[in-house]
Specification:
The protein is α+β, with helices and mostly antiparallel strands. 27% of the residues are buried. It has four helices and seven strands; from the N terminus they run E-H-H-E-E-E-H-E-H-E-E. Helices cover 30% and strands 39% of the residues. It has a single domain, classed as Aminopeptidase (3-Layer(aba) Sandwich), CATH 3.40.630. The chain is globular, with a radius of gyration of 15 Å. The longest helix has 15 residues. It has a seven-stranded mixed sheet with strand order 1-2-3-4-5-7-6, sandwiched between helices.
């Protein structure tokens, strides 16, 4: 599988929004993606396989830290390493921009994502009770030190 990583453009927003709607129980609005795309403090990146969008990630930059509020792999590409690719490429991008710590929250029940984050080097730093709705669920808060990240 040959994946590439690129910044999202306005023309990608419909696909991003549709993919989010199909994948998340509490999806972002199209307006949220439009605002993220327009902001100088955020990045939306797309993973493509052979020119087809396979997943996306949203990053909020508040140097020297960043947050990963949204990462989604299209249903047809799940289990093929797209999420890991997006994370690894995003980490390199953030390092190049002087970011030293990346934070995220993940549903307690999302064992697939939590396992991926741990393999990449994220550590649990806390729990936010009742953070998610539909269904109501706790969030595991995780962080990754980019300046000491070891490739696994």
């Amino acid at each position: 599988m040959s994946l590439s990583y690129r910044f999202a453009e306005e023309t990608d927003l419909e696909w991003i929004f549709k993919t989010e709607q199909e994948s998340m129980s509490c999806p972002w609005s199209l307006k949220s993606y439009q605002e993220a795309l327009a902001s100088e403090h955020s990045v939306i990146a797309i993973a493509e396989q052979d020119g087809l969008p396979a997943g996306f990630v949203v990053l909020y930059l508040t140097p020297p830290e960043a947050e990963l509020p949204d990462i989604v792999t299209s249903k047809e590409f799940r289990g093929q390493g797209v999420g890991r690719f997006l994370l690894e490429q995003s980490v390199e991008l953030l390092k190049a921009r002087g970011i030293d710590t990346l934070f995220l929250e993940v549903r307690v029940s999302n064992e697939v994502a939590r396992s991926l984050y741990e393999r990449i080097g994220f550590e649990q730093i806390g729990v936010r009770k009742y953070f998610y709705s539909d269904p109501v669920e706790d969030a595991v808060c995780m962080s990754l030190r980019l300046d000491t990240n070891q490739e696994n």
